[in-house]
Amino acid sequence: MRTNDTFKPFLGLNPIQYNPYTDRLWRASVKQFEKSLILTEERVAGKLQVQLRTVNANTLQVRVYISFWTGIFFSLHFKV
Question: What is the pLDDT of residues 20-49, one digit of tens each?
Fold first, then answer.
C-alpha cells in the first residue's frame, strides 16, 4: 500500500459534517481503511520474519529489528 492511498477511503467525507445521515458512509470508509491496514501489517510482518530468520540468534540484532519495526508500526497507527 502506498502512503498516498492510505486515506483514500475518506476522500469526499468531511469530518465536520458527520451526522446520522453520513454515519453509514463513515463506517464503510473506516472498514475499508482497516482492511488496507491489515494488508500492510501482513506485508510488514512477512518482511520482519525474513529479517529475523537471517539474524541467527544474535539477541542484540533481534532487539534492534523489533524496536525499528515497532516504531514504524506505532507511527502508522498513532500519528498525532
Answer: 988 999 999 999 988 888 888 888 888 877
Asked if 51 contacts 65 with a C-beta cutoff of 8 angstroms, the reply is yes
Give the 3-state secondary structure percentages of the chain, helix then strand then coil, rounded to 5: 75, 0, 25
Smallest Cα–Cα separation from 45: which of 25, 66, 27?
66
Cα 26 to Cα 6: distance, rounded to the nearest angstrom: 15
- Sequence ranges of the domains in the chain: 3-77
For residue 48, give the C-alpha cell: 520482519
Angle in degrees, CA 48, 52, 58, rounded to 5 = 145
d(CA 36, CA 31): 9
Task: Retrieve residue 11's grid coordinates.
Answer: 476522500
Residue 33's CB is within 10 A of a number of other CB atoms, namely 14
The one-letter code for the residue type at 60 is L
